[in-house]
Structures are given as structure tokens and as C-alpha cells.
Specification:
Elements: H1 3-49, H2 70-151, H3 157-189, E1 195-199, H4 200-217, E2 221-225, E3 233-237, H5 238-254, E4 261-269, E5 272-279, H6 286-289, H7 300-304, H8 317-327, E6 331-337, E7 341-349
Parallel strand pairs: 2-4
Antiparallel strand pairs: 1-3, 4-5, 5-7, 6-7
Bound molecules: adenosine-5'-diphosphate.
Amino acid sequence: MNTFSSARVKLTIWYTLVLAMISVGLSSLYYLRTLQIIEMQYHQLNRRLSGQPGQMRVPRQSPQEWTLPENHQEILLSEFNSIRSELFQKILTINLLIIVAGAGGSFILSGKTLQPIKLALDKQKQFVTDAAHELKTPLTALQTSIEVNLMDKKNNQDTKRVLKENLEDVVRLNSLTGRLLKLSHTEENGQSGNRKVIDLLMISELALKKMKPVASKKNIKLNIDTGPYKNIKVFGDEESLLEAIIILLDNAIKYSQKNSNIILKTSQQKRMGIVEVSDQGIGIAKKDIDKIFDRFYQSDTSRQKKFDKQTGGYGLGLALAKQIVENHGGKIEVDSQLGKGSVFRIKLALKTAEE
Ligand code: ADP
């Protein structure tokens, strides 16, 4: 379910809940008041039938406690009870109808309420995508020309140093625009893509192979733990899932000190295939845990402890990883302790043989 649909459902539930409370509240008042009137009439009638002088005051006791000639009491009581239960049933039916109709109306209304917000959000996303698209070509051209200039022997060392710094910035900007484009592409395409049966172990090993050189630059040991499960099959787009695992490994390396350990673990549990990345890095504060999957969010700790300029990201990696996993109907979770390390977990439904 996308953000818009889940917000619509939540809003519908709230609208319906408020409506139900008002309806049930008013109906209860109406029911009690009507019951009081009927009770009053019952008592008057009762008194008349039992030959007592008519008093207008309604006694507090319940009708069952009145002593009347037997046949009168039975008739009156059964009349009273049937009116009461009929009234109750009618009010219940009306309330149910109000709630059902209210839920339908609320769904339409919440759609209308959220429509302008959705349009504004879509426009904003489109703007970001267009801007990234426009920037991509000149940035690539700039990168190529800096690289060419760097190789030019006519440039002295000082010029080359400046060019190198420029190149680093351009490469980072280029990767930012690439991520933005990838993110909007992933959001737009949803469940589509080149889907097939994938071996989770195989793509985990592929991701590990790709990231080993990056980890070795910080002398980090990157190992895989496959446990007893050798055949974990899921259904999805191999390229995207590989990217999601790489994002987790890349972060684990980025936010870990030199000479530490990172473990990539594959397993299965309750019809779920699981890929887990554990690190001994800086960890994430409790207040940041819910926000790290938002676009452009970076925790203060990670900003302060950015190990070098090149490792600094833009806060888009986890947003992309989450979108990829959700497009596959899966879940991404995190357990972390500040200063001790983090465990990121991707859970995907297993592809069974008969599917
Ligand atoms: P970034 O490009 O900044 O890494 P991400 O979206 O990948 O962006 O991550 C968002 C934030 O989550 C990071 O800035 C960092 O604060 C935190 N984070 C992600 N992975 C880890 C990790 N393994 N250890 C500690 N912090 C992490």
C-alpha cells in the first residue's frame, strides 16, 4: 500500500470512528429518554389497572418489582419488554447503517481531502526528478572534462590538486542525482520490473563481492554467515534487491570504525527470507530510528562522525532501500545501539515450490 492509500485508510478510520461515537452517543441518549417515557406510561397504566389512584411521579424501582395481579403483570411486562427490545434493535440497525454509510462517505471524503496534498507532493517529486534529470547531463560532461584535464601533463600540481577536489564534488553530485532519479523511478514503477525467482544467498554473495574492496579500504572484515539454509528463494527484481543489500553494506562500512567486523547473514523464518547486515559502528540514537528511512535524513551522530568527505552520503540510501523492499511486499527493520552498532534486516516472502 502506498503512502497516499494508507493515509486515506487511516483518515477514513478516524472519520468513521468520530461519526460512530457521535451516532452511538446520540442514539444512547435517545434510547434512554424514550425508555424513560415508556416506563412512565407503563407505571401509570399499571397503577390504573391495579386500582391505585393515579400518581404522576415515576417510582425508581424497575417494573419487575411491582406487585400486580398476575395476568396484568405478565401482559404489561411482556409488552414493555418487547417495545424495549424493538426499540433497541431499531436503534442498533440505524446505527450500523449510519456507520457503514459513514465509512463509505468517509472514504470518498478523505480521498477528496488528501487529493490536493497528493497533487502538491506529486508536483514536488516531479520537480526533484526533473531537476535531477537536467543536472545529470552537464554533471557527467563536467566530470569527463575534469578527468581529461587531470590527465593533461601541462597542468601543474596545484591545478591538479584543485581539479581533484572538484572531481570529488562532481562525483558526489553525480551520484546524488543518480540516486534521486533511481528513487523516483522505483517509486513510480512500484511492483513492476524484471521479476523472477531469485536465490537470496546468491545475490547476497554478489553484494558481498562488490563491497569487499570498499570494506578493505578501511581494513574492515566483511563476512557472510549463511547458516543451515542453502536454498532461500524469493520472487523479485534481482538488480533492485542487490542494490538494497549493497546500500545496507555500504552504510555499515561508512558508519563503522577501521578494523571492525561486518557480518552479512542470510536465513529464513516463518515463510520469510531474511538478509541481515550487522556492524559494530557508531549506532543510531533512539530518536533517529524512525526517521532514518526518510529522504535526506541524516542523524547528527553520523554527521559529526563522518569519517571522510567521500563517505558522506545525502540521506537517500535507506529511503531507496525501503522503497525497493516495499515494492517487493517485504519489510526493512533496524535494531541499533548508539556507540555499539546496528543490525539492518530485510524480510521478503519466500517463493514456495508450488507458487
Ligand atoms: P546516507 O547517505 O547519509 O548514508 P542513508 O539514507 O543511507 O543516507 O542513511 C540515513 C542515515 O541513517 C545516515 O545518515 C545515518 O545517520 C543513519 N545510518 C544508516 N545506516 C547506518 C549504520 N549502519 N550505522 C549507523 N547509522 C546509520
